Amino acid sequence: MKTETTIQGLSASLNPARTARKSIGFVPTMGNLHQGHLNLVREAKKLCDVVVVSIFVNPIQFGPNEDFDSYPRTLEQDQRLLAEVGCDIVFAPSVEQMYGNSPRLTNITVSDITNDLCGLQRPGHFDGVAVVVTKLFNIVQPNFAFFGEKDYQQLAVIRQFVRDLNMPLEVMGVAIARAEDGLALSSRNGYLSEENRQKAPTIYQSLKAAEQSLQAGTALADVLANIKATLTQAGFVVDYVEARTPALQKMDAFDQDVVLFIAAKLGATRLIDNLKVKHI
């Protein structure tokens, strides 16, 4: 496995694959990797000849009071994990390598689907994601890119701008990876105190209970209110509990497939999760 820190170095490492017309799979990450990330690499290995993983903590997707400075940076550990699952190239650029020294005058905004959920709670976040992912797609030029479905709204945003801008690649969503107790894996789970780590699976438990309630005929509004009450009682500060169609449109009744979304803070740690519920 190679590690490249410059765009020029990465291009040189990928040139043989491009010349041989081999398929390139790409997994963008911010590092501090867990099994969810490694599952993305495993899926990429199944489909692609060469797999590139980027490790870059992107400053422009963090808000002024968010955790950019404290975000865990664990490159050596990440490299060991990636080597074990067969990653071919790690791309670990600096902020200067990605953004240069001149002011950035170009932005990428995906409207409508970024107006609520995490877009409302984290203004500018998805613009920052869209810019860095576009830059990484231009640098790596993959055939396939792999993203986790835990960040469902982010996945929808990326699929949208790839389609709108005619980017020549396919975006692949991969199912949420969970701990044995159901907690969705996230690099930010490491921020949880031992006590809060015990409480955190309540998010997934409330989603599964909501699924049963919906399929038993409980009204959607009542189900959402029950989730919020359960989480609040357990000590969470709820950002939102929402229901959307799989295309992220608002819905008032369970008359088609629904995706239930939760964002809530436990202590200082913000956790997100979602569950798709089939309409039977």
Would you kindly provide a written description of the structure presented here, covering whatever features stand out?
Helix content is 39%, strand content 19%. The chain is of the alpha/beta class. The strands form 2 sheets. The protein has a 6-stranded parallel beta sheet, sandwiched between helices. Helix 7 links the parallel strand 5 and strand 6 (170-174). Helix 6 (125-140) packs across helix 7 (152-164) and helix 9 (202-215) runs antiparallel to helix 10 (220-233). The longest helix has 16 residues, at 125-140. The protein is globular and about 55 Å long. Homodimer. The active site is at residue 37. It catalyses: (R)-pantoate + beta-alanine + ATP = (R)-pantothenate + AMP + diphosphate + H(+). Belongs to the pantothenate synthetase family.
Largest sheet: 6 strands, parallel
Poorly predicted runs? none
Class derived from helix and strand content: alpha/beta
**What is the succession of H and E elements?**
EHEHEHEHHHEHEHHHEEE
- In round numbers, the mean pLDDT is 97
Count helical runs: 10
Rg calculated over all Cα atoms: 19 Å
> Helical amount among residues, as a percent range?
25-40%
Total beta strand runs: 9
Function: Catalyzes the condensation of pantoate with beta-alanine in an ATP-dependent reaction via a pantoyl-adenylate intermediate.
Keywords: ATP-binding, Cytoplasm, Ligase, Nucleotide-binding, Pantothenate biosynthesis
Pathway: Cofactor biosynthesis; (R)-pantothenate biosynthesis; (R)-pantothenate from (R)-pantoate and beta-alanine: step 1/1
EC number: 6.3.2.1
